[in-house]
Amino acid sequence: MAACGLDFGTSNTTLGRVAGGRPELLPLEGHHRTVPSAIFFAPGREPVIGRAAMEAYVEGVPGRLMRSLKSVLGTGLIEETTPLGRERLRFRDVIARYLAAVKARAESAADTEFDTVVHGRPVHFVDGDPEGDRRAEETLREIAASVGFRQVSFQYEPIAAALDYEQGVSQEEIALIADIGGGTSDFSIVRLSPERHARAERAEDILANDGVRIGGTDFDRMLSLGTVMPLMGLGSPMRRGDLAVPNAYFHDLATWSSINRLYNPKTLREIDETRRDAARPELIDRLYGVVEAERGHGLALAVEGAKIAASDTGAAEIDLTFVERGLTASVDRASLDAQTGTLASRIAERVGRCLAQAGLGPDRIDALFLTGGSTGLPHVRAGLTACLPRARVVEGDTFGSVGIGLTVEAARRAG
C-alpha cells in the first residue's frame, strides 16, 4: 500500500509516487508520463484511454470519444447520462472508468497498490459558486473512493506547482505561481525557501490564492466560433425575416464537453429543418454532415492543432477536407489574438486580484512560475508578464509540475 499524487487535468493526467526519496511521475501510456484525459468507447470492446482513444477516433473506429472530462465537475452535466452503445452511463461513471484505468496502469508500473491519494483541484471548479465548488470536490472524492482510494485529500493545483518549484529554490523568495491549464487558470502567491520546504505546515506561507474557469479549451471554443463555425452556417441568415440560423448547435460543436450532446436523431432532425429554411443551406449541409458522421471531435482537434501551430510559428491552416473537399480555414497570430484576446485579458486580471489579496505590489514578486499547456499562448504569457515586469520568469514542467508537487505533498501527508 502506498500514497500517490494524482493530477487529473482537463487535457492531461499524471500520477506520481516518491521512490528513493525523490518524487517521480509514473509512465501511464508506453513511456509517456502523461496520458490525455480522453476515453473511447467502441461497441463490444473495453474502453481505451489516452492517445489510444484519440487514435481510435481519428482512424474512424466506430464508437464514442469523450474528452475534457473534468469540465463537467461542478455542473449539472455530471449526473446526466450519455448513450454508449446499448447502455447509458452517467458522466461521473465515465470519469470513474477513466481514473480506474489510470490507477491500474500506475500500479502496474510501480508494482504496488495505491490506497492513498492527494488529488489536485483548481482554486475554483465553478466561478462565483462556493456551493458548486463544494459539490465538485465531493463528487471527485466519491469517484476516487469508488476506484479504490481509501484515503482521499486535496491540494490546490498552483500550490502543488509551488512545491515542485521550491525544490530548486536556493534562498527565500515570493513567487506567483500561474497554472494555466486546459480548463482553469489558477494562481497562488507563496513564500518559498529551502528551510520552509521542510516544514509540514505551510498555511502561513500561502499569501493569496485565486483562479478563474478559463483554460485552453475555452481558447479552442472561441477560435472555432470565430473561424470555423461561420463555414458551417453560424451567423448566416434564414430565408424569412431578420433571423439568423440558431446558434446553439455551433456552441455545442465548439465546446469539447458538449459535443456528444449533438449525437442524437432529434438534433439531426432539427438541423435538417433549419437547412430547409436557411438562406444558405449549403453551409448547414456541412454542419449536418459533421454531426451525422459524429466528427465533432475531429473538428475540435483540428482547431486545437491550429491554435498550437499559430502560437508556435505565427500561422496555420485548419484542414477541413474531411468536412468538404478543398475546405480550409486560416489562422494567424493576429486572428488568434482577436478571437481570444478577451480570455487572455480575463486571465491576466486575476494577477491583480491575487496581489490585492496578498497586500503586495507587483515589485514584491521575485519570480513568476509558469506551468500548464496554455502558458504557451503568446498573448496569455505577455499579459501575465506585463503584470509583473520585474519578476524573473521561470518555466516549469508544462504538464508535470503540478503532478510532482502533489506527489511531494502525498509523501508528506503519509509521512
Automatic annotation (TrEMBL):
Gene3D superfamilies in the record: 3.30.420.40
The entry's keywords: ATP-binding, Nucleotide-binding
PROSITE patterns from the UniProt entry: HSP70_3
Annotated CDD domains: ASKHA_NBD_HSP70_YegD-like
Keyword Phosphoprotein: no
Superkingdom of the organism of origin: Bacteria
GO MF annotations in UniProt: ATP binding; ATP-dependent protein folding chaperone
Keyword Nucleotide-binding listed: yes
InterPro entries: ATPase_NBD, Heat_shock_70_CS, Hsp_70_fam, MreB_MamK-like, YegD-like
Recorded family membership: Belongs to the heat shock protein 70 family.
UniProt-listed PANTHER family: HEAT SHOCK PROTEIN 70KDA
Name used for this protein in its record: Chaperone protein DnaK
